[in-house]
């Protein structure tokens, strides 16, 4: 490695920038003789804490066809703080690009995480979390509907038309049709023929299911 450095022009920027060939086509003809970093893990920096930052754009390149888009993203993402800024004056701490400069102001800024990307990542995480919450609620609703429809069979012993309707509702819930399943419950409970006793029994079953639902939801948020 040291020898290669001598054969090529000695270069203070050795491996401080990502190789353009490597970024755009995913490989480089110079191989190990290349002065530029092939991926972030090769970037020469004292700031090792940031190297687990991944490389979505390089992945895209391997699939091909996205060259324009990647080049467009380069200033924002791929090259962010991977090179030392030429306009930065360490004496004054000033740069004509100010705080929006995508070049590193000193070695300690090399490979800093792009705040724009980090924001995107955070909002993506947030979205996934919300989506999981929606999925979980639907699954829990399905569970308690099946629970209610099954337990309701005990309220109507020998009343086959109702039992069949309840079984049909369970089937609907299992298929993920929570709407149809809860309509069936309403239809049975709001029937004029329901006695006070039947309604009380249903209320108990319903309360149990509600408790189960809240409990599970609480557990999942811990
Ligand atoms: Zn290269
Ligand atoms: Zn700058």
TrEMBL record:
Q: Which InterPro entries match?
A: ZFP36-like, Znf_CCCH
**Is DNA repair among the key words of this record?**
no
Q: Which residues form the C3H1-type domain?
A: 13-41, 79-108
GO biological processes = regulation of gene expression; regulation of RNA metabolic process
Q: Where are the zinc fingers (C3H1-type)?
A: 13-41, 79-108
A Pfam entry, by short name: zf-CCCH_UNK
The molecular function terms of the Gene Ontology recorded here are: mRNA binding; zinc ion binding
* Keyword Transport annotated: no
UniProt xrefs under SMART domains: ZnF_C3H1
Sorted keywords for this record are:
Metal-binding, Zinc, Zinc-finger
User: Which PANTHER family does the record cross-reference, listed alphabetically?
Assistant: CCCH ZINC FINGER/TIS11-RELATED (PTHR12547), PROTEIN TIS11 (PTHR12547:SF18)
Q: Under which name does UniProt file this protein?
A: C3H1-type domain-containing protein
């Amino acid at each position: 490695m040291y020898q290669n450095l001598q054969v090529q022009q000695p270069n203070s920027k050795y491996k401080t920038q990502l190789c353009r060939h490597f970024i755009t086509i995913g490989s480089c003809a110079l191989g190990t003789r290349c002065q530029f970093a092939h991926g972030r893990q090769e970037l020469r920096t004292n700031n090792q804490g940031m190297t687990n930052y991944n490389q979505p754009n390089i992945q895209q390149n391997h699939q091909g066809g996205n060259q324009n888009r990647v080049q467009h993203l380069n200033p924002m993402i791929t090259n962010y703080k991977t090179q030392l800024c030429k306009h930065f004056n360490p004496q004054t701490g000033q740069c004509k690009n100010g705080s929006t400069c995508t070049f590193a102001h000193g070695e300690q800024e090399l490979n800093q995480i792009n705040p724009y990307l980090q924001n995107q990542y955070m909002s993506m995480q947030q979205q996934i979390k919300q989506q999981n919450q929606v999925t979980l609620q639907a699954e829990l609703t399905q569970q308690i509907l099946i629970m209610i429809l099954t337990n309701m069979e005990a309220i109507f012993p020998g009343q086959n038309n109702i039992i069949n309707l309840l079984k049909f509702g369970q089937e609907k819930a299992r298929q993920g049709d929570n709407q149809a399943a809860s309509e069936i419950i309403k239809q049975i409970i709001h029937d004029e023929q329901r006695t006070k006793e039947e309604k009380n029994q249903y209320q108990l079953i319903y309360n149990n299911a509600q408790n189960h639902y809240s409990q599970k939801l609480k557990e999942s948020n811990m």
